[in-house]
Write a structure and sequence with these properties.
single chain, mainly beta, Immunoglobulin-like, 4 domains, six-stranded mixed β-sheet, 27 strands, globular, disordered N terminus
Length: 450
């Protein structure tokens, strides 16, 4: 799916990586954990006055004139660098709402570049720090997100303001449907995060029986289309007259003797439609939340070069890991062999926890087998079996196979527990992913796939 290229030690592509980096840092607090670095654009130029943050503790730092940011006394453990919304006015403060207008391309730490696969909250780049450590000289490369900014107007030219609309955006790489809310000027923004650019797009909106659809337009790589205007096939509905509050009506009928404690029931005046409803350590790349995403032609989807490998290095042992999709255990083994790797071997609880934190708990093929000697489970890469994480027996649907027929293992979605499987088992058919491991990263770095 996503791939990684290595530079120096390794070029990391993935959504999470755990680091244990300790560096001396002059001019920063001697106690507490600190982190500092520089924010650059894709041309390598520092960005001044840019808000960057750590999700843990909702810490936000603004870069100086040279693009430098600093975080002091950050919490030890896993931290995630993210981009909050950039203030548009002087008195505004940046906030985290996962709809920032910019995205992280990569984060470079100690010569290792990690490319962002997905934006927070479902992705992001996370790394761990030890208490009292000082991590400096981080390089965060950012860029504006590719977007389409659309203004919706009625046939009579009045903008559709603060209204919930249904949207549909179609491009060469797929289509997405959902809902959003126009702003006070009638605009809404749709971000293009599927990397299929340049491509032609069309935008359709629907509102209370009215609709509008754009002509196809070309969206270039890294560009923004901010001047789209969609005209609905109808005029703005007539204004709804204001209804007097119930106490005032009762006052007129009773001569003003309405008890003061009567609750006030009012109907809001809708001079224009305002129904509020559903409202979007080396180098780096991002899709709005939509309800349906159906690629019209997956073969046309184009991924950038750095998404062709997805290796991540565990600093505790120097091994590189990658998640792949596969149709079978045989395919997973073939893929591993082709890359000079093997299926995952887990040697202790710390590695198990690191793997689960990096790739999440799903069904994965791992390199454990007792095919040669029944009951003697061994790792494919030859490492000794020093740790086990077998799940309880019968924790999943009973298998029709005898234990002798279960010669392979999967890591399950229940706390990463292992489960023995054989041909015909439910998990044998369901498991469509595997984790590869490469132990000799320094001497034989992973090869970039074509």
């Amino acid at each position: 799916m996503n791939h990684l290229k290595f530079t120096h030690l390794a070029s990391l592509v993935g959504i999470i990586i755990t680091l244990s980096l300790i560096a001396s840092a002059p001019c920063i607090a001697q106690n507490g954990t600190t982190l500092s670095g520089t924010v650059l654009d894709t041309e390598g130029k520092p960005i001044a006055g840019f808000a960057i943050g750590l999700l843990q503790g909702s810490l936000i730092s603004k870069t100086d004139e040279e693009g430098v940011f600093t975080f002091n006394n950050i919490p030890a453990g896993p931290v995630q660098i993210a981009i909050p919304t950039q203030p548009s006015r002087e008195n505004e403060e940046p906030i985290f709402n996962f709809e920032a207008d910019n995205e992280i391309v990569s984060i470079k730490i100690k010569g290792i570049t990690l490319y962002q696969e997905m934006r927070p909250p479902f992705g992001g780049i996370t790394f761990g720090v030890k208490s009292g450590s000082h991590i400096e000289d981080i390089t965060v490369t950012v860029r504006p997100r590719v977007r389409i900014r659309t203004k919706v107007v009625f046939k009579d030219g009045k903008p559709l303001t603060n209204a919930s609309v249904a949207t549909r955006v179609e491009g060469d790489g797929g289509r997405s449907s959902g809902g959003t809310t126009t702003d006070a000027e009638g605009y809404f923004v749709h971000y293009i995060d599927n990397n299929v650019v340049p491509a032609h797009h069309t935008v359709t909106v629907k509102y209370k029986g009215l609709s509008a659809k754009s002509e196809p337009f070309l969206l270039e790589k890294g560009a923004r289309y901010d001047d789209l205007v969609l005209t609905l096939d109808g005029d703005a509905p007539p204004a709804v007259p204001q209804t007097e509050s119930l106490p005032k009506v009762l006052d007129k009928l009773t001569g003003g003797s309405t008890p003061s404690e009567k609750p006030t029931l009012t109907q809001t005046n809708h001079s224009l439609p305002t129904n509020k409803g559903q409202v979007n350590i080396q180098e780096v790349e991002v899709e709005p939340r939509v309800t349906n995403t159906k690629p019209t032609n997956p073969a046309k989807q184009i991924r950038p070069p750095w998404e062709k490998d997805a290796w991540a290095v565990n600093p505790a042992n120097g091994h590189a890991y990658k998640k792949i999709r596969c149709d079978s255990l045989d395919e997973a083994r073939d893929r591993a062999a082709a890359e000079g790797a093997s299926l995952l071997a887990i040697n202790d609880a710390a590695e198990q926890q690191w793997i689960s934190g990096l790739f999440g708990n799903h069904l994965y093929w791992i390199g454990l087998s007792d095919a040669e000697n029944e009951g003697e489970w061994v790792w494919q890469n030859g490492e000794p079996l020093t740790y086990t994480n077998w799940g309880p027996k019968h924790s999943f649907p009973r298998s029709p196979l005898s234990p002798e027929k279960k010669d392979s293992a999967v890591m399950t979605f229940v706390n990463g527990q292992w489960h023995a499987v054989g041909p015909g088992d439910l998990f044998w058919r369901m498991t469509k992913m595997a984790i590869l491991e490469k132990t000799d990263v320094l001497d034989n770095p992973p090869v970039k796939e074509k």
